[in-house]
Amino acid sequence: MNRRTLLATAALGLGLGLGGAASAQGMDKVKACFVYVGPVGDGGWTYQHHQGLLAVEAEFGDRVETAYQESVPEGADAERVLTQMALSGCNIIFTTSFGYMDATNNVAAKFPDIKFEHATGYKREHPNVSIYNARFYEGRAVTGLIAGHMTKSNKIGYIGSFPIPEVVQGINATYLHAKKVNPDVSISVVWAYTWFDPAKEADAAKALIEQGVDVIVQHTDSTAPLAEAAKTPGVIGFGQASDMSEYKTNPDGTPGPRVSSIIDEWSPYYIKRVGALLDGTWESIDSWEGIAAGEVVIGEITEAVPAEVKAEAEALRDAIADGSYHPFTGPLNKQDGSAWLAEGETASDGDLLGMKFYVEGISGDIPN
Amino acid sequence: MDFGGINPAVLIASLMVASVPILLAALGELVVEKAGVLNLGVEGMMIMGAVCGFITAVTTGSPLLGFLGGALGAAVLSLIFALLTQVLLANQVATGLALTLFGLGLSSLLGQGYVGIKPPATGVVPLGPLADIPGLGRILFRHDWMVYASIAMVAAVWAVLRFTRMGLILRAVGESADAAHALGYKVTRIRIMAILFGGAMAGLGGAYVSLVRVPQWTDGITAGAGWIALAIVVFASWRPGRVLIGAYLFGGITVLQLNLQAAGARIPVEYLSMSPYLITILVLVIMSSGKGRASLNAPASLGRNFHASR
């Protein structure tokens, strides 16, 4: 061995040593765990989170181990499930529903070495908690525009889950953009008080249809409202959280109720966060991305929608994506007529995250 | 004709559909209780009917076979109850409650692979011109065949209990098992048959939820309908005609509260959501106030185990 190769070997060894030191701060293998509010087979919200889990597995292969639990009730049970996951060796735990907010923070306090990521909440009380959300209201603006064009009875029905800011944003965004293209439009809201209960969701959709609604917008997770809409010809709806493309056509081949959808695409975020933990760069963040980052995707707009409406919807989507348009742009008044946003002013994130009021023109009260 | 933005014809039509599951389950339970057996496992049998019906319909592609499968699945579950209470003489209340818990768990296990699947559609009975009669056509002649079957079952159960020898024997067993035994009737066998009938009816009701009303499978899909069915039997003071009224009343309020919400009634949502249960409690209180057990028409041997010791 001559001196040159010896030096080279030494340099290589040094490099490896340094590399080893860097990865010591990261991790060789991560166990990523997920808590779901519904079953993986809901075809909507939880299904999409599970797609994210599968994407993480595909991305990191042997370096990641995953575990999940389905249909975990929001509340005390969630804390028990989270504690169990923390004790079973999870390194990062994703809690994928608003109602896990307090449970996530409580358990995070007890396990400072484990990273917690809570979806759609606003509490980040410990350095090992991150929160992430998607700007669903951007998608609602696009589907609202389609709804405004498509309704013949000028009545849009909205199945709300819980009266929380995320849902109120959705109602307001839907109404504003439907109203913009159809001044006669009105919106009826039915609160289901559940994220996932197909029987209740179907009943709510049925009641709305009986009230003359011909466009159903849902903020609950199952496909039941679309199944109900399919029973009445002329009623349309949108896929929620997932594409729900199986409702594009009815079994007999006629066009189905689903004309478009808002797809939640969690995979990029999950890959980014698990990757960050692996290479040691994880830190507590507050992530709120929308159409631009690909977290909110508008599903295929079917041929039931006229071409010019489709083009208009896609233009709106692109304007939101490139930042030239914000779905909440003034002048806008609150329901009681008081001024909210001045001409040209856009809503701040703080305003949106605390949204507890309807915009002018929507009737009815938000339950407490 | 509208009341507060609600079209009564549409409301009645949809309350008939909404009531089918509880109506069927309550009718079955009525026959069981008439035979002197208190089976509190209705909820468990309904959900077994829902999952078995769903699996059968999805596998065979036939809604009719689905309903049969649902009835069969729930009847098999009720056979466990029959074995425990009629042969082994276990306490009926405890066994019934256990049956509900068991049914909920077992259905969840069986349904694992069936979440998010669409079942074959149960069609509307084509009644031609009848469906186009204004008002009445919408209310009466645009339903699927299970709606008509459920009403026919009310008439059938009423007629059998009132006019046939079989009904008389069944009632005798429920009023005084010892007397019926002394007359030479096989009390245990008759009660087991009644329990199986009750199970099959609850199963049909459950299958209606998962095949027509929702139509999907998910854990806990019956959402307490079985308990309502039990309350309706008491509400109806063990009369089939009144079971129909009770089921339609409950179904009607459930539908009405959603319609009121959709029509924008200014009543807090919480009150509307609890109203069907409040009214059920209220009616039960009124029914049982100030009158003896006899006027309530309860079978005299209800809930008492029978053992042929003499």
UniProtKB/TrEMBL annotation, chain A:
CC terms in the record's Gene Ontology section: plasma membrane
Keyword field: Signal
Membrane spanning residue stretches: none
Span of domain ABC transporter substrate-binding protein PnrA-like: 29-310
Signal peptide: 1-24
Superkingdom per UniProt: Bacteria
Record-given protein name: BMP family ABC transporter substrate-binding protein
From TrEMBL, chain B:
Localization per record: Cell membrane
A Pfam family annotated for this UniProt entry: BPD_transp_2
Keyword entries, A-Z: Cell membrane, Membrane, Transmembrane, Transmembrane helix
GO CC annotations on file: plasma membrane
Ranges annotated as spanning the membrane: 6-25, 37-58, 64-84, 96-117, 145-161, 192-211, 217-236, 243-263, 269-287
Membrane topology reported for the UniProt record: Multi-pass membrane protein
GO molecular function, one term: transmembrane transporter activity
InterPro entries, sorted: ABC_transp_permease
CDD domains in the cross-refs: TM_PBP1_transp_TpRbsC_like (cd06580)
Keyword Cell membrane recorded: yes
Entry protein name: ABC transporter permease
Lineage: Bacteria, Pseudomonadati, Pseudomonadota, Alphaproteobacteria, Rhodobacterales
